[in-house]
């Protein structure tokens, strides 16, 4: 993707757009544009094919996933627009269920779906274009980590393995339902907790997996991220499906991208190794927390009933930007 975007970045001069606080010149989870001294607009979009069979759940998952980029930057969602591709031989009632699931999830975030666009396509896809707001001085970015920070994650890993097993008919109903509950959980409360605790660096964990998104943060911050493998939270069933080789295609691309960029301090079980690269759908926030802010963030997360796990720390830049031990 970096290669594809290079022509655009080569032509982009940040000095021509001083109000564009985050964009092509400093890629992050979303674009941020300053409106005035107290308000900046966050703009993002995301869409993908169905990851579960239930149309309503798919709409809710896609909405939570699209909204997550706003939350990763510490913002609140204002409104969203539907983006849908639909086969003309599929019942429109199913598309209505997708829209309904998304609308309910956006409403849960205190926002509304204000319209959208639909086309006919051979493969169904759905997502949202999302607009949010944040104070220009309180934008949370990928590049704010410092050596000595603690790494906190707000959702367990393994959704790619679960949904792949579901597509192949080998996942248990209980495991899938639990995965759907996590994927439809908004990151809004975690974003509010980050703002209350003065956090400056975070991202949401989605298709590039834990290590892929961590690498983006480490590179932007010029630090090394160190993860404790045994501390990683994992969804029920995910390691079992990894042992059954229910590996999503995106995991292979993540491994290729990170080849030579990750150092394993010890051998890992194959199933846990797969968890590290597993592409997530609507995953949690990965937060770099200064030690002085950890107690505050923990209190704010607990006050909002938001689960969280300490999974590692940052150090000065080492030979590899990502280390797992």
CATH class of the largest domain: Alpha Beta
N-to-C order of helices and strands: HEEEHEHEEEHHHEHEHHEHEHEE
User: What would you say the CATH architecture of the largest domain is?
Assistant: Alpha-Beta Complex
Largest sheet: 7 strands, mixed
Count the strands?
13
Structural class based on helices, strands and sheet pairing: alpha+beta
Strand order of the largest sheet: 8-11-7-12-9-13-10
State mean pLDDT (0 to 100 scale). Answer: 95
Number of helices: 11
**Poorly predicted ranges (pLDDT <50, ≥5 residues)?**
none
Helical content class: 25-40%
| Coarse shape | globular
Number of self-contained structural domains: 2
The CATH topology of the largest domain, please?
Phosphoribosyl-aminoimidazole Synthetase, Chain A, domain 2
Q: Write down the Rg.
A: 19 Å
Description of the molecule:
The chain folds into two domains: 2-138, 60s Ribosomal Protein L30, Chain: A; 150-324, Alpha-Beta Complex (Phosphoribosyl-aminoimidazole Synthetase, Chain A, domain 2), CATH 3.90.650.10. It is 38% helix and 24% strand. The strands form two sheets. A seven-stranded mixed β-sheet has the order 8-11-7-12-9-13-10, with helices on both faces. With 325 residues, the protein is α+β, with helices and mostly antiparallel strands. It has eleven helices and 13 strands. Helix 4 (159-167) crosses helix 5 and helix 6 crosses helix 11. The mean pLDDT is 95.
Concise synopsis of the structure shown:
With 325 residues, this protein is α+β, with helices and mostly antiparallel strands. The chain has helices at 2-11, 55-72, 92-108, 159-167, 173-183, 188-197, 209-221, 238-243, 249-257, 270-277, 291-303, and strands spanning 20-22, 31-34, 40-48, 76-86, 112-120, 125-134, 150-153, 201-204, 223-227, 262-264, 285-289, 309-316, 322-324.
């Amino acid at each position: 993707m970096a290669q594809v975007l290079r022509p655009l970045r080569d032509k982009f001069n940040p000095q021509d757009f001083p109000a564009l606080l985050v964009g092509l010149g400093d890629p992050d989870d979303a674009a941020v544009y300053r409106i005035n001294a107290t308000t900046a607009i966050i703009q993002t979009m995301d869409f993908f094919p169905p990851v579960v069979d239930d149309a309503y759940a798919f709409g809710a998952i896609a909405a939570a996933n699209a909204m997550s980029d706003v939350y990763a930057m510490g913002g609140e969602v204002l409104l969203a627009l539907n983006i849908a591709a639909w086969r003309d031989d599929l019942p429109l009632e199913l598309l209505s269920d997708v829209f309904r699931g998304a609308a309910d999830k956006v409403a849960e975030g205190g926002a509304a779906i204000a319209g959208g666009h639909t086309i006919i396509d051979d493969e169904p896809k759905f997502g949202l274009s999302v607009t949010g707001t944040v104070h220009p001085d309180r934008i949370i970015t990928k590049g704010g980590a410092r050596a000595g920070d603690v790494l906190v994650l707000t959702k367990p890993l393994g959704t790619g393995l679960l949904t792949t097993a579901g597509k192949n008919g080998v996942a248990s109903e209980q495991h899938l339902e639990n995965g759907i509950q996590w994927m439809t959980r908004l990151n809004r409360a975690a974003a509010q907790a980050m703002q209350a605790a003065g956090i400056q660096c975070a991202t949401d964990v989605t298709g590039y997996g834990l290590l892929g998104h961590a690498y983006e943060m480490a590179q932007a911050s010029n630090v090394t991220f160190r993860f404790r493998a045994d501390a990683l939270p994992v969804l029920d069933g995910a390691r079992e499906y990894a042992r059954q080789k229910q590996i999503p295609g995106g995991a292979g691309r993540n491994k290729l991208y990170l080849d030579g960029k990750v150092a394993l301090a010890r051998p890992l079980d194959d199933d846990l190794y797969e968890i590290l690269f597993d592409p997530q759908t609507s995953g949690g926030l990965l937060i770099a927390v200064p030690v002085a802010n950890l107690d505050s963030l923990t209190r704010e997360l607990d006050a909002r009933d938001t689960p969280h796990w300490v999974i590692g720390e940052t150090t000065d830049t080492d030979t590899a930007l990502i280390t797992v031990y």
